[in-house]
Amino acid sequence: ASDPGGQINFFSMVDNLEGDSGRGYYLELLIGTPPQKMNILVDTGSSNFAVAGALNPDITTFFDSKLSTSYEPLNTQVTVRYTQGSWTGLLGKDVISMPKGVNGTFLINIASIFQSENFFLPNINWQGILGLAYSTLAKPSSSVEPFFDSLVQQENIPNIFSMQMCGAGQPSPGIGINAGSLVLGGIEPSLYQGDIWYTPITEEWYYQVEVLKFEVGGQNLNLDCTVYNSDKAIVDSGTTLLRLPDKVFNAMVDAIVQTSLIQNFNAEFWAGLQLACWDKTQDPWNYFPDISIYLRDTNSSRSFRLTLKPQLYIQSVLTFQESLNCFRFGISQSASALVIGATVMEGFYVIFDRAEKRVGFAVSSCAEVSGITVSEIAGPFGTSDVSSNCIARNPLREPIMWIISYSLMSLCGMILLVLVILLLLPNRHRRDDMETVNDESSLVQHRWK
Amino acid sequence: AACASANFIFPLKVSPAEMKGAVPVAPVTPKGAPGLLL
Question: What region does A178 belong to: left with phi over 0, alpha with psi -120 to 50, or beta?
Answer without folding.
Answer: left
